[in-house]
């Protein structure tokens, strides 16, 4: 098993690490995660065992740069691991996806202070410290749709004091840090991310996450009450207008990684369906359901949807790797197409199996609850389709 690194060891190699885990470790991890998934879904608790396994395999620092001792993995590696982990436990995969996206963004940023960049990278490599952005608010919703946050960072004599609340905070109970989206109390407010240690005085977690799907992400509400921060923990704050256009690289990464996650859920549902159809042999039939043309056709329809997903994701990842023309609009369409295909695939499996598929004794109903959550992730369908349409209509004929 691949082990964690420290500053004294050789840095991980993202591609070599993925090749190794594809052969052995990752397959074993997925099976282990799947064996734990129902229990954590039932209790709505994050699997710390899964996270410990990922750290032992060196996978929590996959997108941390080589020079910081991490894997230096790009989009292809991140999407591959997230998709595979999602086959075992999608909630773990979502927490992992946020880790990968945030560390990749920090590595690309020209705004983050070097000291902070080194601190979060070193902690991810040495002990698997988790990082996520805390952005959504009860009144604002997601900042991706515009508006100033109600969370305020107030200047103090020795830094900042942050007060506010964030909902849907994925992985809230296992995070080392939250990058909190806030506005300053200056006459001309600036907006951006403040690096908040989740164990800082004034940080509390309200256990509000009681959703239909992705229950084990513990995406609770985080309250910040006059949380004191050093001056350089204003990691990236700018005038509001400077945030008008999203980072195209981050948008593409986010769309593809999230799409890969829910494609993984659909692949897990397909795997269960195949086993069910092969094993189920009604006495009146005298043969497995897999021998019936009706079920063979349904499996073929699912295969077609997942083949389309594989080709779409592969093309988008290859284009990004080649420095091609994949942009925020195209990334949003990739996310929309892949996740809708994943939802349709699981729906077909559920319709084909009836009561057994809906039984909580089987994983298919959980896969269905989880895959439906694809629609709530940014960018949502109306944004992706509307942006693509506007760009197409504005383009020269």
UniProtKB/TrEMBL annotation:
Residues annotated as domain Acyl-CoA dehydrogenase/oxidase N-terminal: 32-99
Superkingdom field: Bacteria
Domain Acyl-CoA oxidase/dehydrogenase middle: 137-227
GO MF assignments: flavin adenine dinucleotide binding; oxidoreductase activity, acting on the CH-CH group of donors
Gene3D superfamilies according to UniProt: Acyl-CoA dehydrogenase/oxidase, N-terminal domain, Butyryl-CoA Dehydrogenase, subunit A, domain 2, Butyryl-CoA Dehydrogenase, subunit A, domain 3
UniProt keyword annotations, A-Z: Flavoprotein, Oxidoreductase
One Pfam family of this chain: Acyl-CoA_dh_M
CDD domains membership: ACAD
Domain Acyl-CoA dehydrogenase C-terminal: 257-378
Protein name per its UniProtKB record: Acyl-CoA dehydrogenase
Naturally occurring in which organism (per UniProt): Lichenicoccus roseus
